[in-house]
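Assemble and predict.
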Amino acid sequence: MKFAVLGTGTVGRAIGGRLDELGHDVTIGTRDPQATLARTEADGMGNPPYAEWAAQHNGIRLASFADASAAAEVVVNATSGEASLEVLGLAGGENLAGKVLIDIANPLDFSAGMPPTLLVKDTDSLGEQIQRAFPAVRVVKTLNTLTAGLMVRPDTLPEGSSVFVSGDDAEAKAVVSTLLKEFGHTDVIDLGDLSTARGTEMLLPVWLRLMGALGTPNFNFKIVR
Amino acid sequence: MKFAVLGTGTVGRAIGGRLDELGHDVTIGTRDPQATLARTEADGMGNPPYAEWAAQHNGIRLASFADASAAAEVVVNATSGEASLEVLGLAGGENLAGKVLIDIANPLDFSAGMPPTLLVKDTDSLGEQIQRAFPAVRVVKTLNTLTAGLMVRPDTLPEGSSVFVSGDDAEAKAVVSTLLKEFGHTDVIDLGDLSTARGTEMLLPVWLRLMGALGTPNFNFKIVR
């Protein structure tokens, strides 16, 4: 399938790289491709410059948010939660219409330091905000509850764990569930409509404390039942 | 140990019954013991009248919130989150001072129907509100992330799962962790100070959606790492 992955950070690279490895067609979307390729410093998260990563991933193209989205069948929102609505606006509603949008972003506010706090209360979610802003897009919220490496390689944990999907479009959720299984997920739980993204986005406060207590982001929730 | 369990509902009965079974000294605290014993109808959650339950638990006393707390070494807050601060006020700061308070309550607002929403955002928690209102109490937040039956019998699930403790007093957390192991918990994760209760209280939105999706409250989070 043809994917646009919006975002050049840790999550965008993890998803893009894995999709490419699995034989999918991948274009990474960014604000200004030339500026992204010209950067020679590590980004704010300590990732090496994009050009360095891209040199090891020859099959992956880089394009503007709009061009990447226009050419894609499935679009992945791998941007920061604060930037997501603006970035999707740049991608363009007309380029997104009718497509599956996999929303991985977490609505976190880092402005007051660590740990970040949520930009939403449990009466709304970023997933729903995106769906309201782009009603013709088929939003599926998933993968926002685990670290980037484990999103695409959950089998590196010592046992199986769980991942969640939320969305209003059953067919879109089926497409995403199949993809999650390609990544190696063995327990995909369909929580229901997109309002259930309120639940998974609000997992971040405990995720952040668990990372602190365990001293690693390499853990995941397994729903034992 | 001598326990006061504040609350006669599902959680209070589960905790009180299990403590009694384990050989602890248990007094259940209620607003008005005579009124509680006089009730002949099921409660709002469908539990049989308290007197019926009490008849099967002869070793467990019933007393006012204040009398139960005054006589106890450890106090368990098993009231609804909306009522917790008022109930602890009735228990009396002087009766609680210096004692370990196990806070199981979730700050949920049922006034707008199901699913309930949180009374706090992730910049505060009920656990911290209790600690601020009763500074001499040693609050430990725990067990609020699973259904009552599994709080005290986690071994009825097909495999081990995780439970969390949050609190500012290391000795109080050690007392509670030992108790959790008596209940059968095999993975007690110390998240850190009481502000980490913001994480576990905010697990409720996804817990509620999981109950809906799975059709049962009999599940728990296991942190795979």
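Chain B has one domain: 2-214.
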